[in-house]
Design goal:
Four Helix Bundle (Hemerythrin (Met), subunit A), 8 helices, 0% strand, phosphotransferase activity, for other substituted phosphate groups, transmembrane helix, CDP-OH_PTrfase_TM_dom, transmembrane, CDP-OH_P_trans
């Protein structure tokens, strides 16, 4: 489901952002600059707004910086230097830092207000990061391990929607969103482990 969603959106989005990509390349903005701005921006915004309980505003600001992810790869491909291994590592690392900040920001707020949600946050964050770990470990064994029901983009959408709805007063949305991320992440981990299992057999 995750990879199908990303593929179905890839071409239309690429066409929409192409003029902006050409402009960024023309003025000398590199993919690494975009990755760094997006990663640091979303991290700082998440820690600042979510820890204060300003979830709706925080979602808007974080979503703005997350959209930078649409441009870094496209700019790298459109530039003369092309995509690089360092750029891929930088982007992936900043994505993980941003993801952690989103969970930590919410966790810091609920540590002061809700013991039950604190536990759910810890479970959801652990499950979500296991998805990335399995992929990284598989690739260290030279096994391609993409796909699964909930890749990063799907998990991020669920979390941000839950945060946003909570910010609008739908308090139950947070628990639902966190449990949904947990369940889908566990399913994705199992799917990716099966990919590796079949590859080594």
């Amino acid at each position: 489901m995750g990879i199908m969603l990303q593929r179905s959106l890839r071409d239309p989005v690429a066409r929409i952002i192409q003029p902006f990509v050409r402009f960024l390349v023309k003025i000398g903005i590199t993919a690494n600059i975009i990755s760094t701005l997006g990663g640091l921006g979303s991290t700082i915004a998440a820690l600042y707004f979510f820890s204060k309980g300003e979830f709706f505003v925080g979602v808007l600001v974080v979503a703005f910086f997350v959209l930078f992810d649409l441009f870094d790869g496209a700019v790298a491909r459109a530039s003369q230097s092309g995509e690089s291994k360092w750029g891929a590592l930088l982007d992936s690392t900043l994505d993980r830092i941003s993801d952690a900040a989103i969970f930590i920001g919410g966790l810091l707020f609920f540590l002061k207000t809700s013991d039950s949600l604190t536990v759910i946050f810890l479970i959801a964050a652990t499950a979500a990061f296991l998805v990335s770990y399995v992929k990284a470990r598989a690739e260290s064994l030279s096994i391609k391990c993409d796909g699964g029901i909930a890749e990063r983009s799907e998990r991020l959408i669920i979390v941000l929607v839950a945060y946003g709805l909570h910010g609008l007063g739908l308090n139950y949305a947070m628990a639902i969103g966190m449990w949904l991320v947990t369940i889908l992440s566990i399913v994705t981990v199992l799917q990716r482990m099966m990919i590796v299992y079949k590859a080594v057999k």
